[in-house]
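Thread: Modeling a multi-component assembly for a lab meeting

Hi all, long-time lurker, first post. My supervisor asked me to bring a structural picture of a complex we are working on to next week's group meeting, and I have zero experience with this. I have the sequence lines for every component (694 residues in total). Could someone generate the structure of the whole assembly? Inputs are pasted exactly as I received them:
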Amino acid sequence: MMPEAVLCQAQAEMIEWQNSGMSVMEMSHRGKQFAHIAAMLEADLRELMAIPANYKVLFLQGGATAQFSFIPQNLLNGKTKACYLNTGAWSEKAIKDAGAICEVLVSASAEETKFTTIPERARWVIDAQAAYLHYTSNETIHGVEFQSTPENTGLPLVVDMSSNILSREFNVSDFGLIYAGTQKNMGPAGVTVVIVRDDLVGHASNMTPAVFNYAEQAKNQSMLNTPATYNWYLVGLVLQWLKAQGGVAVIEQRNIAKAARLYQAIDNSTLYRNPVATTCRSRMNVPFILADESLDAAFLAAAEANGLAELKGHRSVGGMRASIYNAMPDEGVTALIAFMAEFERTH
Amino acid sequence: MMPEAVLCQAQAEMIEWQNSGMSVMEMSHRGKQFAHIAAMLEADLRELMAIPANYKVLFLQGGATAQFSFIPQNLLNGKTKACYLNTGAWSEKAIKDAGAICEVLVSASAEETKFTTIPERARWVIDAQAAYLHYTSNETIHGVEFQSTPENTGLPLVVDMSSNILSREFNVSDFGLIYAGTQKNMGPAGVTVVIVRDDLVGHASNMTPAVFNYAEQAKNQSMLNTPATYNWYLVGLVLQWLKAQGGVAVIEQRNIAKAARLYQAIDNSTLYRNPVATTCRSRMNVPFILADESLDAAFLAAAEANGLAELKGHRSVGGMRASIYNAMPDEGVTALIAFMAEFERTH
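Re: Modeling a multi-component assembly
Sure thing. I ran the full set together rather than chain by chain. Output:
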């Protein structure tokens, strides 16, 4: 979901951007108009996340999934091992792809609870010789979210923040590297943000393609080759919208309230159930199952007829899933809760 | 430059695509609406280029530049060497990046003519043990274009067609692999098309990230991870526009005429000069230098004041460059020629 104000602005500027005589997608990425758009994009992200000056901000292509491979290629720096937390489907993919590049130590896994918990910090096994510790701050499929940043791990912390970046406050200094696809809270798919501490840049293996080498891209303001210009522009519009809302602290309070109302409705019902431990429920993705799964199809059909789209759970877990990212207004959650109550009453 | 009709349609459909209740950029890439957009995109490209059934068509991210590394990673298949023709700046980049993956034999180079020629076929040195022969069908910076496809090389032919794909007819069966960034003749930046013959798929090295492994992406209809959905949609609109123009054969005739008029104007002037041999002048990119280069700045300023944007030559070669891709209408070339004549008259 995109903020409607962003879609309206993009629509108004589609044919011509600010008296430039052209659409953003027609601009040379080396021209002065696009340079302005790119500079605003980085400045706004730095402001919204309070990114310190000793971090590079890169805008790449390929999705967070490409980074599953390029993070070890860039960060190993002669080491042979990396630590990973396994808290769901996205962690598993990151672990699998890193495994083709280096030795992976799974420091902790929630597989035995079917990814409905986050393993206690005290039980994590961390190897001080590893290059970094990787985790996924929010698991979209399982609806599991870290409620705080892991502490005292002794390793550079690398986080896949694709699905909760800008939804809550993070202290960037806690991390060695933050990465995120843009398609959840930052705009349309097609841009991958990498925020990386200076000392971790410049050690890529020779095998790393130049466009995925953090040092090369940092030197070239992420324009080593033609970037996805129109996507950068759209992400920039979303960041401006977020600033206009009051920034991350304000949207976080709204997200807390939206999620609380939806979980309460689920917990108070007899038809719906969320399987995740209350200590690590996601504010972004709320999976729920129906007590009688033969009602699934009827639920989805009735939901769509009521204008509630994209509620089907991921094929790997089934059931339902409500994604309530930043752009989902309070009214969307209210409508969903009302629909769920009415469906429960009539079924 | 984008066809104006495409921008208008994208504008009209920005908020809601065809009664779907949402913008294309809000669609799940697994949903039925986007599945339709994706299927149309591939079908239209197959139709426009007459792509045989034994070729896969992939839509990736990262630009053609990323493929400079991933082509050898996917195609070497146990071999240790690849042949490359060096006909300009883009060839050079492809050669450099491949050199990090395998041994590169430069089969021929036009460096000694400062990339104003294409070396004679008879003088190419081809190693039959190489995995493939790579060339760049159009060099945007030097304005050099192959007027026919290399024949009887004995190796799978791999071509970077980024800047002349869909501008002229190609026989896809002549190639092992065709790749192209979309930002010249297919739409905005952010999608990379790879058209690859079946027998070349499935031999990627273990180091190849899954999202750049042709076999993995072919199995997943290029949706191993979230693709750049809105960019796919825009490329699809450009392909529909091209079909409405009459297809590649029709646009090729228009491109021939546009380029001929511009080269004639340059050749008939005393102020302007194109340095490229007439046998390999590009129909897409027409570089020209002013006899008095102290007039460059005045030329560019006057051009921009006359609504003629993006005429500055690439920083590596200087001078001017007119890019006259498919979307550039005849009137754009007419206006440029008139401006150039007037500038020459008054300077």
